[in-house]
Known about the structure:
Layout: H1 2-20, E1 27-33, E2 36-38, E3 43-52, E4 60-62, E5 69-72, E6 78-85, E7 88-101, E8 105-109, E9 113-117, E10 123-128, E11 132-137, E12 150-151, E13 154-161, E14 168-169, E15 173-183, E16 201-205, E17 209-215, E18 218-231, E19 235-239, E20 242-248, E21 253-259, E22 262-267, H2 275-282, H3 289-302, H4 305-319, H5 321-331, H6 337-355, H7 362-368, H8 370-377, H9 387-408, H10 422-425
Parallel strand pairs: 2-11, 12-20, 14-22
Antiparallel strand pairs: 1-3, 3-7, 4-9, 5-7, 6-7, 8-11, 9-10, 13-15, 15-18, 16-18, 17-18, 19-22, 20-21
Amino acid sequence: MTRLGLLLLSAVVACPLAMAEEAGGVVVRQGVRPASAVVGQRVSVFVDVLFPGEMPVPPQVRLPEVPGAQVFRFESQATVLEDRVNGSPYAGQRFEFALFPRRGGTLSVPPAEVILLDRQREAAGILSGQAAALAVRVPPGLDASRPVVATTRLSLDQRWEPSPPGGIAAGGALRRIIIREAEDVPALAMQDLRGPMPEGVRAYSDPPDADDRSHRDTLIGRRLDRITYVFETAGEFRLPALRQPWWDLGAQTLRQAEAPGASVHVQARPPDARAPVLERAGRLTWFAYPLVLVTLAALLWAGRRTSKAILAWRRAQRRSERAAFRRLRRACRGPHPRPAYAALHRWRSRLGETIGASRMPDAAIDAAAGRLSAVLFGGASPTSWTSADAGRLGARLGELREAALAAAAPTGDATRLPPLNPAVRSSVPPRMIREPMRRLP
Length: 441
């Protein structure tokens, strides 16, 4: 086995040394570690760029898209190297990409592109690494159709606001905050947490907060999810437990991290405060009735109730699925991937609130947005995203939206959306249901 490994290593080194004669002696070596992995496991793709003597200017290294995998590059992942090639001293850098396979089978890792720079940081030449094959297996019990987490450590914590859940009246809301951390797993690789909703409860998910940081060559992915539950009626409700499956690389077994559910007692709304006023008005003498009615009408007209209702209606319109999709289509008219990704996340959340999580075409949306995700998180240059790419994405998402709304409409009318106005009856301040912008890497 050792001899075979040495033969493979010599084959990897031989190719870049042949190219070195054509590029002023610069050596490029590329490899993957480990050579086999489970779906969702982090695989390191190394690209070593060595210069004879000393390195004049650090080169630029780019890894093309890898079909069936996500690729991440972190700025801290560059290590200074010193080596000897054919007895001569060489110096350079090692560039590392984190690759996460998303399907089983054999993945082909394409050659990296190395752009050599002169001292004015202008392109002076282009070299290539070497292609590599990666064997990926899917352990029993894992659903590879959804994001898979494979790690040695994963933690899940949750809290409720208010805590403990209680003291809620009909029309009120409860917020659930779930925090997950995992080693060598990017936050965006963790799946969305969904569960069945009891009748009379609506769930609204904010875009997740993703935070990836590197500590001593170990990637720590942290994802924070906020879910707001709005209770439309009084009664007893059981909110579901939410589970994050993950493959334990150390024990080689499937585990489940669970956020326990909660039982919530929702009280009936208090009676209208105007009822005692009207009751006392009934006991007034007949000549006072016109005065009371005029006074009440003036108070209602001049009060803030009407303006609040109008503002709530406008907020609901801005938060509707229809408005979110209009913003998404506008974002898909230009060559800017980040606004398109942010708008896609918001529309996806609104569509799930409208038709229900069980009817969401998640796999189709992920497939449609695959090119966009690769540009933002796969190491590709943002300038490679064009207006044509954006237009194709918008058109495809429009088709998926039409089909999803048509399937969810009870009368077959795909354009008629259910009312979505929790702020009118909610006792929660508007800031609790306002959607924050997710920070992109």
